[in-house]
């Protein structure tokens, strides 16, 4: 397989781990393997530098570059992960304008020597807004990596949430357009990907006719908005209303997904979660993979992965062939995706190491520099040693169990030690006897010396003594009457009734039990059963020889086991014991359970709360739980959301 580049707005770097299939193995390495990607561009990490953790940075086999927001917490953020076995950048920068500085340096990226900078920085004349360049790069919206093959730009473009962000959004778009065009004019190939927050045309959004009608806007006006005008002018085949803007006369990028799927409808990458619009595919395409003309023929596939959950966006990818044509020569893609000398003719010449990390790599942050991941800490690397085994006693003692010749010595030594342990009065006598018995043991003098110094013989006997004492039978080791059983935690406790001799009515057939007392005792020992269920055990003839049925009925009706009673009296101790099961049944009957109304599909409605400002803000209501359909509206007689709507205050149904 070739080299795959995947872009994904994850809406929080740990957010995908709450969904399948990512929740099975919550590691970034497993996530990237599932994506089958070699470069992963992530938007909306929503973290700051202090939130970085080992599992984010020290991903085995991967390098990572972050651009995080400077001031806002839990906002924006872009990261690019690169698989070290397939690619390695030669330069890396944060920000779109080049005004930020590398770590531990006060020199801006744009002011570095020519051989250390990526180039193509926007000029003041190309930025028409009054927004400061440092402010544009303060929100963590761009990471740029340069490979020998092309320049990779991963961006998260601002969205128009309100009028206060319009100027900032347009300033960022202008800087992005200028940077891409400047790089292309320098002769470099460009691959731009990420969440641009721009709908290119009417094919890339659902429900556009209704939206235009609602906003009293024409399709040409929709296409001519500043953000869409920028996108349609920078890509080939874009629809531009009127004359192109100055400096944007020629397109420079290709929309790869549309090149491979030019007429595919419903190719959306983002859905509104509040409306549960994803199952009905009522969304928009705002995530793109774009490339310059010089590398367009390198790509063999580009598509969306709408079936992968984990965010309100889905991953979008583009795949480069194993071998590409460059300057008329076909070469392996790995040769031009790594620094010179790392690959040659598709064969690796040297392994990737920490020295290949660029200054902006997160692996070089002081908290993570020269550290291993937790997984690597448990893997002991074997290092060859040329030192003879007989050089030091420590080497002999360490390798004695690994040698086939010394394995028999170890067994013999163990046997001798066990055989002479009973006759030796001290550890030294024990070792002297074992050495005299087996000459081979005397040749390995370091072994008995080390064993004699170990405190194992002194600590093991007390443990064995404790174990022996624990195994001795005792009348106190069995479970006593106060010990709880497993059923004691599940079954409701029933008191053992004590019968007062004064309450007995006289002997019957020589027995000292009255019929009422026997029946009452049987009832008290009977497990509680809910109303309407049959008791598990009935009275047997052997329990009571003679008894009066009327007396039992009269007595049991007057006991505390009536239908409306929730407590049982312990006559001996005077304590009240409440049955939780009977309490629950009683309260359920008293209060009742509120029944959720049904929608037109005959299914339970979902309860929501109004958040829109107004007189109904805070009120709860019921509506159909099904997702919106492709039309984006509530429908009748379809499989999508129906028109059921009920205020909670107007519904009083109870079970």
Automatic annotation (TrEMBL):
An example Gene Ontology molecular-function term: DNA-(apurinic or apyrimidinic site) endonuclease activity
The GO cellular component terms are: nucleus
UniProt entry tagged with the keyword Transcription regulation: no
What keyword terms does UniProt attach to this protein? Hydrolase, Lyase, Magnesium, Manganese, Metal-binding, Nucleus, Zinc, Zinc-finger
Q: Which cofactor does it need?
A: Mg(2+); Mn(2+)
Species of the source: Neurospora crassa (strain ATCC 24698 / 74-OR23-1A / CBS 708.71 / DSM 1257 / FGSC 987)
Q: State the protein's name.
A: DNA-(apurinic or apyrimidinic site) endonuclease 2
Q: Residues annotated as region Disordered?
A: 378-407, 420-515
The residues annotated as site (Transition state stabilizer) are 197
């Amino acid at each position: 397989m070739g080299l795959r580049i995947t872009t994904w707005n994850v809406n929080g770097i740990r957010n995908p781990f709450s969904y399948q299939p990512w929740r099975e193995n919550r590691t970034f390495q497993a996530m990237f393997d599932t994506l089958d990607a070699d470069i992963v561009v992530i938007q909306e990490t929503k973290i700051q530098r202090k939130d970085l953790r080992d599992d984010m940075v020290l991903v085995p086999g991967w390098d990572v570059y972050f651009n995080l927001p400077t001031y806002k917490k839990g906002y924006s953020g872009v990261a690019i992960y690169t698989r070290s076995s397939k690619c390695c950048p030669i330069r890396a920068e944060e920000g779109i304008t080049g005004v930020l500085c590398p770590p531990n340096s006060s020199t801006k990226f744009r002011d570095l020597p020519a051989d250390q900078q990526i180039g193509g920085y926007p000029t003041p004349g190309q930025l028409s807004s009054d927004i400061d360049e440092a402010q544009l790069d303060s929100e963590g919206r761009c990471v740029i990596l340069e490979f020998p093959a092309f320049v990779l730009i991963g961006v998260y473009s601002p969205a128009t949430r309100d009028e206060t962000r319009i100027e900032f959004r347009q300033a960022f778009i202008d800087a992005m357009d200028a940077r891409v065009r400047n790089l292309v004019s320098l002769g470099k190939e460009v691959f731009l990907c990420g969440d641009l927050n721009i709908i290119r045309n009417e094919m890339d959004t659902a429900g556009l006719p209704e939206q235009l009608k609602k906003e009293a806007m024409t399709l040409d006006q929709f296409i001519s908005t500043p953000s869409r005008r920028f996108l349609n002018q920078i890509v080939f085949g874009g629809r531009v209303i009127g004359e192109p803007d100055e400096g944007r006369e020629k397109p420079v990028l290709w929309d790869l997904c549309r090149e491979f799927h030019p007429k595919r409808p419903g190719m959306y990458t983002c859905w509104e979660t509040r409306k549960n619009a994803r199952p009905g595919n009522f969304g928009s395409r705002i995530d793109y993979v774009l490339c310059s003309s010089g590398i367009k023929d390198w790509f063999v596939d580009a598509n969306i992965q709408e079936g992968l959950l984990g965010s309100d966006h889905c991953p979008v990818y583009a795949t480069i062939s194993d071998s590409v044509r460059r300057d008329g020569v076909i070469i392996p893609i790995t040769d031009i995706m790594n620094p010179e000398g790392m690959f040659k003719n598709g064969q690796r010449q040297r392994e990737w190491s920490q020295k290949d990390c660029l200054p902006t790599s997160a692996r070089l942050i002081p908290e993570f520099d020269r550290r291993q991941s937790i997984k690597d800490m448990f893997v002991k690397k074997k290092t060859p040693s040329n030192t003879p085994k007989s050089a030091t006693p420590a080497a002999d003692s360490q390798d004695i169990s690994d040698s086939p010749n010394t394995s028999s010595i170890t067994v013999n030594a163990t046997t001798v030690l066990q055989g002479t342990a009973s006759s030796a009065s001290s550890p030294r006598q024990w070792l002297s006897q074992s050495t005299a018995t087996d000459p081979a043991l005397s040749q390995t003098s370091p072994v008995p010396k080390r064993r004699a110094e170990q405190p194992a013989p002194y600590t093991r006997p007390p443990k064995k003594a404790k174990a022996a004492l624990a195994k001795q039978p005792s009348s106190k080791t069995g479970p006593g009457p106060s010990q709880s059983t497993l059923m004691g935690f599940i079954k409701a406790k029933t008191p053992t009734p004590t019968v007062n001799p004064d309450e007995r009515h006289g002997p019957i057939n020589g027995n000292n039990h009255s019929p009422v007392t026997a029946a009452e005792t049987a009832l008290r020992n009977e497990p509680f059963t809910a109303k309407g269920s049959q008791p598990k055990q009935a009275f047997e003839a052997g329990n009571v020889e003679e008894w009066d049925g009327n007396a039992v009925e009269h007595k049991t009706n007057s006991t505390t086991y009536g239908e409306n009673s929730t407590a049982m009296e312990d006559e001996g101790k005077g304590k009240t014991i409440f049955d939780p099961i009977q309490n629950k049944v009683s309260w359920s009957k008293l209060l009742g359970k509120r029944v959720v109304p049904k929608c037109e599909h005959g299914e339970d409605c979902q309860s929501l709360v109004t958040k829109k400002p107004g007189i109904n803000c805070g009120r709860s209501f019921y509506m159909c739980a099904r997702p919106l359909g492709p039309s984006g509206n509530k429908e009748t007689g379809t499989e999508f959301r129906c028109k059921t709507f009920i205020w909670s205050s107007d519904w009083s149904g109870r079970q």
